[in-house]
Amino acid sequence: MRIKQSVVEQPAAPEPTRRQFVIRMASVAAVISTSGVLSACGASGVELNGEVAAFNYGVASGDPLADRVILWTHARTSTDQPVRMTWQVATDTSFAALVASGTTAATADSGFTAKVDAAGLAANTEYFYRFLAPNNSVSPVGRTRTLPVGNVAEVKLAVFSCSDYPAGYFNAYDAASSSGAQVALHLGDYIYEYKDGVYPPAASAVAARISAPANEIVTLADYRARHALHKADPYAKALHARMPMIAIWDDHEFANNAWMDGAENHDPATQGTWAARKAIASRVYHEWMPIRSPDPANLLKIYRSFDFGNLLSLHMLDTRIIGREHQPDRTVDAQGRDVADPAFLPYAFNRSRQLMGATQQAWLDAQMTASKATWQILGNQTVMARIVLPASVLTTNLSTASVTAYLTAKGTPAAQRTPAQDDLLNPARNPKISYSFDSWEGYPDARDQLFAAAAKLKTAGKKFVVLSGDSHNAWFNKLTLSDGTQVGAEFAGMSVTSSGFEGVFPPAAFPPATLAGTIKALVDDIAYIDTSRRGYLLITVTPGQAKGEYVYVSSVTSSSYATSVDTLTYAG
Ligand SMILES: [Fe+2]
Q1: Ligand 1 midpoint to CA 320 (Å)
Q2: Which helix (H) or strand (E) is 448 found in, with range?
Q3: pLDDT at residue 16 above 50?
Q4: Residue 252 Cα, ligand 1 centroid: separation in angstroms?
Q5: Can you tell me the distance from the alpha carbon of 351 to that of 448, in angstroms, rounded to the nearest whole number?
Q6: Phi, psi (5° rounding) for residue 308?
Q7: Domains (ranges, CATH) in the chain?
Q8: How big is the CA angle at 529 (ends 413 and 436), to the nearest 5 degrees?
Q9: Which one has a higher pLDDT value, 166 or 43?
Q10: Which residues neighbour ligand 1 (ion) by CB within 5 Å?
Q11: How far is C-alpha 183 from the chain's CA centre?
Q12: Is the pTM for the entire model greater than 0.85?
């Protein structure tokens, strides 16, 4: 989802004062000592014509299991010649204690990315890895770890979403690199598809954060170049080198407000078929992200599960591409009717609209039922809780008068209400409607079906938590059945850089604390909301509770920043 942003003047971006990154580099001596391994890489004996391969995008690891993890890099020379490499996994940074190794290649066909599934590893163990190419080329060293098995006391996850490059520095990645998290999750919008100057508008972009390519990404080369821009970011490189990432895409890895058969920001007349764009975007995602493709024959499938012993099962969903039916993109229908007009409701609420699709829904039900873990945690794109606002408030853009009138009516005992107040509280006359049909709010039956499954989990003694991105704001929400029974909790993270509600409600007119208080008072299922700050979510799960630390960075317009933390917990 793209939150429409008014052009807000930003303070001038200071000169970058980038922190010096210390990414451990293997010593030349270590490389020379492995030259016997290297010689096995090449058949010709004139590998790369003597050139050293460049590892411009660092290394990454991802999708850890108890015995394996995906290792990723990008390597190329000044030519299109394949770069054959040896990969190594060791328990020490000098690679004296090798535990696994093999060969791979970065070729033109994969955009010079290379990915291996390093298997045969021990559970719950920290490892170091690197790639060696001919002529003593060596990648930075990455650190990763495998998942635990059996009784697990604690798991720490760093959760990200919405890292828009021109919107600012990825300080949230930097803060998380030293957080002690074992695994990073990225819930989507790892990249954005826009041309330079669109999102954010040029006036509020950070001067030093220039998009590449400058155009909207449409072609294979475009999508690769945009992913490369993000992987070249120093804070992104450091995060990927520090911990494994489990990632899912949202719309902007394709185009804004994407669904199965199209997107708000896709024009078949000028940009080719949606099927072709989807194929390119998904191909490049699998090339550039450290994901273990669940079905190499169908790169549109990314939903998959991860078990952290008997403590938690993490189910990473695709609510965006594989099964999503078309959502209303606007709060005005084709006849110009808006949420104040009851005739608008059928447009907004096609209750049976599918979000995950029947196949994924059945898979998720089976995974959650079969899992023996205490916590069933979903990694998901969009906000799931019932976030609905009275039409009277929504259509006046949260005017003070409309908010006051509604809250006064709500706080007045039924016997003392005026007819006008009764009307305000009558769902037929003043329905509650989402500000975004792109979220789960646009898919009520699909959500009811999932919440019914969550209620069954509760009966079976399991606990249900949802992690969400997309909204750019921070939320801690109750997940409730229509009768109000709570079946779980939602920790929804703020963006890494993309602007939140402060882009829609300028802070001068809507002080963030007042706005947050107003929204919380209007929406029953919101326990906590922050509407204006960027950062990441540090989730710590123990048998007794899921703790969400909302780690805010003080700035994204400078690479220097401080952090502050709000903490919310859910015991299940
Ligand atoms: Fe986003």
Answers
A1: 13
A2: helix 444-459
A3: no
A4: 7
A5: 10
A6: -105, 75
A7: 28-140 (2.60.40.380), 155-388+434-570 (3.60.21.70)
A8: 85
A9: 166
A10: 162, 189, 498
A11: 13
A12: yes
